[in-house]
Amino acid sequence: MKIMFLNPVGDTICNKPFADMARRYKDPNTQVTIASLHHSAGPMAAKAHGPTETLVAAQIIQAAYQARRENYDAFVINCFGEYALDESRQIGGDMLVIGPAQSSIETALRLGRRYTMILNDDTQREHNEEALREYGTKHRPVSYRSIGMGYDEDPAEVEAKLVEQGKLAVECDGAEVLLLACTLALGWHEKLQEAIGVPVVDPAVAALKTAKLAVQMKRSCGWGTSNVGALKSPTEMELKGFRMLQEPYVFGGRIEVE
């Protein structure tokens, strides 16, 4: 089984931490490739919005098509914003395309009926609510809590904020499960679970496990991405008309985790 985990930034700094995560959580018979976008996307690509989001989405689609050409079984867009998720599914062919938000929400709802999203900052809320409208009302969290800082800041302060907001979510909002709404929260779920005593979902780990399960179900049950309606794929003739898709996409960095 081959899974590509795409960090949608034009910077390789995040590749090693996610390779370490994959090494820890993948099965022995699964090959995981951690890749990042071409350097032209820039290090801030994951925070894109409006016109810049469209530019990043174009590279993600090219990356997905390249993964398809390389016969990957699944392709994970490793950002909670899930840029170009449907478009990548349309162009992915037999390859399954997985998003960490959808994966972690589904995981949270298997672990409890009421969950809280822990955000980096309140600006994330509008984007998340827009995505949740598509998933349906039953997928909405009981509350949002924000730590008001990034996961690349002082670790002691990040931990204190996570514990503080996590406890408020459980004690005041009635949350039964916590969901860290950023893939850069990598590794924090274990400390938070121990401190608060409820399940805490890491979206990157949830996406990796979901990708593996999706591939297994496709192989045993034939459940691949639908090719009708909203996710109908372009024809091979149509794809050949786009030279940007015919030329190999050059990733900014790749780490193979055997």
Descriptive labels:
single chain; 258 residues; alpha/beta; Rossmann fold; 2 domains; five-stranded mixed sheet; four-stranded parallel sheet; 10 helices; 15% strand; globular
Question: How are the SSEs ordered, and which strands pair?
Answer:
Elements: E1 2-7, H1 15-25, E2 31-36, H2 51-69, E3 74-77, H3 85-91, E4 96-98, H4 100-111, E5 115-119, H5 124-135, E6 143-146, H6 155-173, E7 177-180, H7 188-196, E8 200-201, H8 203-221, H9 236-240, H10 243-246, E9 253-257
Parallel strand pairs: 1-2, 1-3, 3-4, 5-6, 5-7, 7-8
Antiparallel strand pairs: 2-9
Helix pairs in contact: 1-8, 2-3, 4-8, 6-7
Organism: Aspergillus terreus
Family: Belongs to the HyuE racemase family.
Protein name: Hydantoin racemase
| Number of E strands | 9
CATH class of the largest domain: Alpha Beta
User: Which strand order does the major sheet show?
Assistant: 4-3-1-2-9
Report the end-to-end length measured between terminal Cα atoms: 11 Å
Helical content stands at 40-55%
Number of domains: 2
Strand content: 15-25%
Determine Rg (CA atoms, Å): 18 Å
Major sheet? 5 strands, mixed
Q: Averaging pLDDT over every residue, what do you get?
A: 91
Q: Using the alpha-carbon principal axes, give the shape.
A: globular
| CATH architecture group name of the largest domain | 3-Layer(aba) Sandwich
| Stretches with pLDDT under 50, minimum 5 residues | none
**Which structural class do you get from the secondary structure elements?**
alpha/beta
| SSE succession | EHEHEHEHEHEHEHEHHHE
CATH topology-level fold name of the largest domain: Rossmann fold
Total number of helical segments? 10
